[in-house]
Amino acid sequence: MTSTNQGIYLYGIIQTSQDRAFATEGLQGEPVSTIGFDGLAAVYSPYDFNGRDSVKSSRANMLAHQKVLEFVMHEYTILPFSFGTVTESIQDIDNLIRNRYRVFEKNLNWIEGRVELGVKAFWKNPDKVFKEIAENNPEVQKLKAYIEKTGDQAALIEVGKKVSELLEKKKQAFAEVISEELAPTAIEFKINKSITDAMFLNASFLVSKSREVEFDNVMEDLGEKYEGEVDFKYVGPLPAYNFIDLSIELEEWEK
Q1: Residue-level pLDDT at 143
Q2: Mutual angle of helices 138-150 and 126-136, in 10-degree steps
Q3: pLDDT tens track for 176-234
Q4: What is the pTM of this model?
Q5: Which of 66, 77, 92, 134 is the most buried (most CB within 10 A)?
Q6: How far is Cα 232 from Cα 179, in angstroms, rounded to an integer?
Q7: Burial zone of 84 (CB within 10 Å; 0-12 exposed, 13-18 middle, 19+ buried)
């Protein structure tokens, strides 16, 4: 990306008229500052590429990125850039804000007073869920009886496919139930891809700060309602990652 090792790492855009420094460290332990134009400012830190052409997607770097966003959120609404957003110089930041000012301003106004809350839900005993599917579905039972009668082990593949299909339907049904209970307290929500067999819900909710406690209460009620059956992982408040797309690649004319 750059002909030198030195660059600028971008965290997000905030509304402020003064350039300032934050009492936290960014990637590589670098100081975090702002530079702005006409009431908007980019939060950034220096970045040494160390011969790479992109930011390494390490746990340490991702945590540093998240830490800065959470720190800034204590004072400002922040429009978050995607992890790994970099540019070559301070001048590039100035050009970026000037050229995309209206887009940044519009999105900041839209998320003002709102936060993202993440909810993941897992079956406590996924093996029990699989067993119930296999034992209670007539089609699966019919296939199993056929295998016992004929010894046709190839039919086991069909059993596996059918159980997987039924598992996915059960996931969707449970995800809808949980989402529908949380949705009334949210402005909008998105269902993301589940990443394990035990996980049946991976969702992000955009919630007004004024209703955050209400959302917390619904989550507490869900935890009690499904105690012993479901484990919930509830995180936030977070910047509105899933509701704003700020994956920035500077065009040549912007540099």
Answers
A1: 60
A2: 80
A3: 889 999 999 999 998 888 878 788 899 999 999 999 999 999 999 999 999 888 899 99
A4: 0.74
A5: 77
A6: 13
A7: middle
